[in-house]
Amino acid sequence: MVTMPIDVPELVEQVLAGSRQHIARALTLVESSKPAHREKAREMLRRLAPHTGDAIRVGISGVPGAGKSTFINAMGGKLIDEFDYKVAVLAVDPSSTRTGGSILGDRTRMGDLANRDEAFVRPSPSGGHLGGVARATREAMIVMEAAGYNVVLVETVGVGQSEVAVAGMVDTFLMLSVAGTGDQLQGIKKGILELADVVAVNKADGDNAGNARVSARDLSIAMKLVSSDADKRRVPVLTCSSYTEEGLDDVWQAIVDHRAYLEEDGSLQVRRTEQQREWLWNMVRNEILESLDTDLRVQQTAERIEAGLGTEATSALEGAEEILRAFARAVPNLPWA
Ligand code: GDP
């Protein structure tokens, strides 16, 4: 928990200096939805923001069991050892909002990486809706970049909505697939493949290596089908093994190439500006929804109306109007007003 009072200038200074203890505190602060914390968080982020923007931001998705943690563990170690990067791992797990715990970004599943000085692994924030989790993660990225982490990996699970949220905060989206799970077809159905900038078929080792190559070829064909734009960059489909580390270099190269491609034709800036626009509206919507959910007077009105719904004393239409009026009355006293 965040212990009050929070000295924002001190926290900012320590985060910029890379203090792990303060980074953890800053992350806890952005994960809180308490109005007093939000105010401090905004002040902190305003001061940290000028120190961000240079990191390589990568989203990583795949169905549970695709090998995301194993991949991140291996790739993260490589990036530190061979490229001298500092690696931050964040996670967006919508199920954590229900279970209160996250299977993503779990330190125990990335033990080697989490124990390194050059890495920082943070599990998905819990509580609230996906919008809230995404907001916290987006802000956590600012903290990590300002603290000097020049690669930020954002892990998410392959279920659709969370991919869209993560795609909205990274430069390059890597989809991890495995041969024989049929997830490539599910991926097409859910439109996840459309979000992918790089695809890698993981577990291409031992007896599985051949299947992985076949799967990569099938996926490559599928990728052409989902892309209607003939001029569009061809999405590379590679194979790799997080066990033997074979192919990991090529996957990283494809990520770097994609970023270079974005920078070359100016679309990195366009993409980031568009992401800013999305975040702007996300934040406005989030604040309104959160106030609607938490304001006591609105809640009291809502409870009364909900209780009356079955009895036909209140119709949903009238009830909605009444709740909105209660909200309108509450607005002048809300923290953001
Ligand atoms: P996640 O749920 O996507 O994070 O998947 P995990 O990283 O937990 O991996 C799921 C299972 O696949 C574990 O038993 C891993 O040991 C195994 N696994 C992960 N990567 C590889 C790989 O490259 N090759 C093989 N053979 N198994 C792997």
Brief synopsis:
The chain has 337 residues and is of the alpha/beta class. The protein has 15 helices and 7 strands. The two termini are 26 Å apart.
Explain how this protein is built.
The chain is α/β, with parallel strands linked by helices and 337 residues long. It contains 15 helices and seven strands. Strands 3-2-4-1-5-6-7 form a seven-stranded parallel sheet, sandwiched between helices. Helix 11 links the parallel strand 6 (198-202) and strand 7 (237-239). The longest helix is centred in the last third of the chain and has 28 residues, at 267-294. Residues 97-102 have low confidence and may be disordered.
- The helix fraction, in percent, is 55-70%
Compressed to H and E, one letter per element, the order equals HHHEHEHHEHEHEHHEHEHHHH
Number of strands: 7
Shape type: globular
Flag low-confidence runs. Answer: 97-102
State which percent range the strand residues make up. 5-15%
Largest sheet: 7 strands, parallel
- Give the neighbour order of strands across the main sheet: 3-2-4-1-5-6-7
- Total helical segments: 15
Mean pLDDT over the residues = 86
Characteristics:
337 residues, alpha/beta, 55% helix, 11% strand
Topology:
Elements: H1 8-16, H2 20-31, H3 35-48, E1 56-62, H4 68-83, E2 87-92, H5 96-99, H6 111-114, E3 119-121, H7 130-146, E4 151-157, H8 161-167, E5 172-178, H9 183-189, H10 192-195, E6 198-202, H11 209-226, E7 237-239, H12 248-264, H13 267-294, H14 296-309, H15 316-330
Bound molecules: guanosine-5'-diphosphate (GDP).
Guanosine-5'-diphosphate binds at residues 62, 64-70, 109, 202-203, 205, 241-243.
